[in-house]
Each structure stands twice: as C-alpha cells, then as structure tokens.
Amino acid sequence: MAAFVLTSVSGTIPDPRGADRFGPLRDLIGMWKGTGFNQIWRPFPIQRGGKPAGQQDRFLELNETIETIEFKPIDGAIPNRGLLQGDINLHGMTYTQEVSDANVIVDGHPAGIHIEPGLWLNVPPTENPPNAATVARLATIPHGTSIVMQGGAFRLSGPPSFAPESIAPFPVGNPSHPLPAGDFPEMNLATPSEFRTPPQEIPHVTQAWIDNPNVVLNSGISGKQVIATTTLLISTRSGNVPATGGGTSNIAFLQGAAGGPNADAAQVEAIFWIETVRLPDGSTKLQLQYTQKVILDFNGLSWPHVSVATLEKL
C-alpha cells in the first residue's frame, strides 16, 4: 500500500453542533453497493510429524465479490472526558459491511465471506497528544479480531491515483524485503495448483489482479469524470499516519502458543476514496472505493490479505 504521507490535511472542523459535525465523513452516510476483489492467504494446519507429501502451509483464496455497506449517523455528540487537556466531543456513524462471493452459490444465495459491524468517528484536533483533526474506524470481525484504525483526511480535485500493492509474503517485521513471487507458485495463474481457488470460481480474475490487486480499482473510474475526491487514510500502526492511536486485538486461538501464531491479524491499513462523479447530464453522484491490507502472521512470515471494491451510493 502507498506510504501514508498526508500532504494536504482537511481544514478546521466546523462547529460540531452544526450540520457538518461529521467533517470529511459526511458523504458516507447512506447505503452503498458494488463489486470488488478479495485475496487472502489461508494457513494449512501442520500436523504432528510434519506435512504429508504434497501438502504445504498455505492456500491462496481468491474471490470476486459483491458488497454492501450501510452507514447510519449517531445522533448527538460523543463526549470524551479529558484529564491532560479539556474534554472533546466526537461525532460518528455506525456501519455494517457485508461481502459475498459473486460466483459461488450456497442454498440459492451468494456465499457469504465477510460481515463487519463497526464505527467511523470524526475526531477534533487535540493538544495532548498533539494531533491534528483525524478520523478513526473501529471494527469487529467474527474471526475474533477487533481493530482501531486512525488517520487523516484530505480533499483534492479530480480522481484518485492507485499505488501498486503486492500480496507477496515477507519475514515478520520486514515488509521491505518481500520473498520472490517464484517461491509461491499459487501466485502464477498459469501454474495449476490445488492450493488456490479453482478457476471456475474466479472466471474474471487475471494475472494482473494477482500481481497488483489495486488495478481492479482502475475499472471503477475508467470512462468516468471524477471531479473531486475525499481521501481517508487510516492505519492500526501508531505514527504511520498523522495520529498516535490504533491497534489490533485477537482471540487466543489466532494468537496461538508455542510455535504460533495460528493466524494473527498483526496490523491493518486502508485507503478510502469518496468520489464525486459528474454524469453526462451535468448532475453528480457519489462513488466509494477502497483498498485494505491486513497482515496475517503465521509460520514465521507475514501474509498480506488485500481487499478492494468500488461501490455506488443507492
């Protein structure tokens, strides 16, 4: 994912008692629906005595997705009591995200692969700690992980640009040294593998998607006139964005014990783009795009889990 360098932080948050109390989050409110792509390295259990012949420690799951997200505003201020400085008021919204596989049908319905209840918060500037105005996302995932991501927002004219993203694993704590893609034949669609989603379940996935999942986002703006974009950059890593909060928490099974973890969600970072699109008749509509990377740690490596999507407000 692109480095979190914030070049143009949004201006002063207006009077929180007014209609603009949601700041850069205001346009999220409502129902969104769209499509995307999900990739995740799933661990395979290591049995006592080692792996049977022909088995390995991971499976590359790929999904073409359909998705809905609904954002509902929280009425009134959320007071946070201060000790080192005066009280502050947060304002925010709840959301529910549901993601299903576009090609796998179970009991007559698309197979569900993800559900996530959570919150987005608009946080005013603070003196202690010395942070500019920020946004935060709080999420709970049924696998047994909770996350807090904090970051900044800025608004620019025109469409966003999408930096390349890699799914190549790397040694834990050393993301600048990804392992060669050739070490992971699952990443090459031309190489048959029983440790990758079957081709019939991913009819539109190309090698370009595997090499860089963010290319899927390009089709979401292709041929469209995006006249303005609000960008939200958030991370669980303190100091990785213009904020000092954030983190992940996992149930004991994910953390594992000696020889673990089983599959620990160590960190998460994401970029959301709220885009204003001008239509041929001169009117406008809103579009939401995002890229998210979860780092799963198991068997001595960090395995990127990347999800991208393009949604329109209903």
Q: Which outline best applies?
A: globular
Total number of strands: 13
Work out the strand percent. Answer: over 45%
What would CATH call the homologous superfamily? Answer: Calycin beta-barrel core domain
Total count of helical runs of at least 4 residues? 3
Quick gist of this model?
With 314 residues, the protein is mainly β. Helix content is 5%, strand content 47%. The protein starts with 29 loop residues before the first strand and ends with a strand.
What does it look like?
The protein is globular and about 60 Å long. β3 (78-80) and β4 (88-106) form a beta hairpin. It starts with 29 loop residues before the first strand and ends with a strand. It has helices at 207-211, 215-221, 252-255; strands spanning 30-43, 58-73, 78-80, 88-106, 109-123, 134-141, 145-157, 170-171, 225-235, 247-250, 264-278, 284-298, 301-313. The protein has a single domain (23-44, 55-313), classed as Beta Barrel (Lipocalin), CATH 2.40.128. The protein is mainly beta and 314 residues long.
Question: Which terms summarize this structure?
Answer:
314 residues; mainly beta; Lipocalin; ten-stranded antiparallel β-barrel; 13 strands; globular; disordered N terminus
Helices and strands, with pairings:
Layout: E1 30-43, E2 58-73, E3 78-80, E4 88-106, E5 109-123, E6 134-141, E7 145-157, E8 170-171, H1 207-211, H2 215-221, E9 225-235, E10 247-250, H3 252-255, E11 264-278, E12 284-298, E13 301-313
Antiparallel strand pairs: 1-2, 1-13, 2-4, 3-4, 4-5, 5-6, 6-7, 7-9, 7-10, 8-13, 9-11, 11-12, 12-13
